Amino acid sequence: MRLDPFAMERMQSTYEHQVEFNLSESGVAPMRVDELLDDTASRATLLAERLRYTQTNGTVALRSTIAALYPGATADHVQVTNGGAEANYLTTWHLVESGDEVVMMVPNYMQVHGLVPAFGGLVTEWPLVPGDRWAADVDALERLVTPRTKVIAICNPNNPTGARFGDEELTRIAAVAQRHGAWVLSDEIYRGAELDGRETPTMWGRAERVVVTSGLSKAYGLPGLRIGWIVGPPAFVEAAWTRHDYVTIAPGALSDMLARRALAPSRRQAILARTRGILHANFPIIAEWLAAQGSRVSYTRPDAGAIVYVRYHTPINSTELVTRLRVEKSVLVVPGDHFGMDGYLRIGFGEDEAYLRGGLARIADFAFGIAESR
């Protein structure tokens, strides 16, 4: 199996701790342990936890808690993974074989895009349509899906655009998949991080062959727990468990315990309220900054996530621009090249206000000034 480097993840892991301002992240500022465990009893419970192997597909208690987020699901519909990335990996590994076709929404988080060729499959891109909002053209999807299509891969809310797709679009996507016997892989890791507070509908339950992946990293601000999950038909989840046994085996015991606390209904709502509070406070800051750039940039307002996908209108390659910004101004953002779309930058706005303002101040005159001087 030949895997190309995952450009965005390699860039972030290499440089995110070497810059003064990391605006490449798509989640909100991570929570501290003492925020999640804010009473004496819960802290004592953590300290008493044995550092054992947990059940390799996640404890029954955690799987049941996750299942409650998806109508009709039970613990048998859930596989707990080490982050959402492992959930996507196991799902793609199980579904895609040599010659299979995967129709993938783009732009998108490019993990599945890189994995499909490694497993012998072929990616057919299904582009979102820019405008007042990034729209999912389901008529175009119907033309792209063929009898060879094994999977339709979507990301909702979308990374990098922040677009949210509603009930009508999801139901139509599910119907297209069902007509062709294809699976839908719906990455929903930003669900819960909506600027307007209306939770994004899930793809779950709209067709028999639906797999949802998600986790605690983005909407919950808990990336360090490395807890993700797969929700799918029990037979599919059982097969994913077989593959899980060959890679990371089990989630960490402390992460399993802390995830159960984070997903308890009242605690979950409080965590998502914190996330939305950060988004509400920070989006006006970046919106004002973007407005001040005038005709040098354009963008579509995101529905969810702490990200803005910005198009700049000057002739410089996005990777070159991002590299110079990192080296010369110690600010990290994501180039559009990492989503197959040169001429864009993905800028995160999930950190505290002073940090965000500091990073944006370094980007504007330097980055767009260089572009205009070429």
| Count of runs of 4 or more consecutive helical residues | 13
Mean pLDDT: 96
Neighbour order of strands in the largest sheet:
2-8-7-6-5-3-4
Regions with little confidence, pLDDT below 50 for 5+ residues: none
Succession of helices and strands: HEHHHEHEHEHEHEEEHHHEEHEEEH
Bulk shape = globular
Distance between the termini: 41 Å
Give an overview in words.
This protein is of the alpha/beta class and 374 residues long. The chain has 13 helices and 13 strands. Strands 2-8-7-6-5-3-4 form a 7-stranded mixed β-sheet, sandwiched between helices. It has a 4-stranded antiparallel β-sheet with strand order 9-10-13-12. Strand 5 (149-155), helix 8 (167-180) and strand 6 form a beta-alpha-beta unit. Helix 5 (83-95) crosses helix 9 and helix 12 crosses helix 13. The longest helix is centred in the C-terminal third of the chain and has 28 residues, at 265-292. The mean pLDDT is 96.
